[in-house]
Amino acid sequence: MITLFRASTGESWNGIMHDCFYSEGEIAIFYWTAFQLISFFIFMNVFIAVIGESFDENQATEDENDILALKKKDIKAF
C-alpha cells in the first residue's frame, strides 16, 4: 500500500513501474495501468472540486456586495 501511495503522488513512479514490470510480468502491467488511471481521476476530481467550491464562495461574496452597495440610481431616487 505504501508503494501504491508513493506512486499515486508521483514520487519516482517510473522507477517503481520498471521494477514491478521486470519482477512481476504481464499482470503487473494491467494492474499498474488501472491503478494509475483510477488514482489520476480521483485526484483530478478532488482538485476540480476544490477549485469549484472556491469559485462558488467568491461568486456568492460578489453577489452579497452588489446587494449591499449603493448605486448612483439609488442615490438619485433618494
Give structural attributes.
about 80 residues, mainly alpha
End-to-end CA span = 68 Å
Radius of gyration from CA coordinates: 25 Å
Mean pLDDT, as a whole number?
A: 76
Net shape:
rod-shaped
The count of domains is 1
As a percent range, the share of strand residues is: under 5%
Largest sheet: none
By secondary-structure content and strand pairing, the structural class works out as: mainly alpha
Describe the structure.
Helix 1 (2-9) packs across helix 2 (13-24) and helix 2 (13-24) packs antiparallel against helix 3 (26-68). It is built from four helices and no strands. The mean pLDDT is 76. The longest helix has 43 residues, at 26-68. The protein has one domain (2-77). It has helices at residues 2-9, 13-24, 26-68, 72-77. The protein is mostly helical and 78 residues long. The protein starts with a helix and ends with a helix.
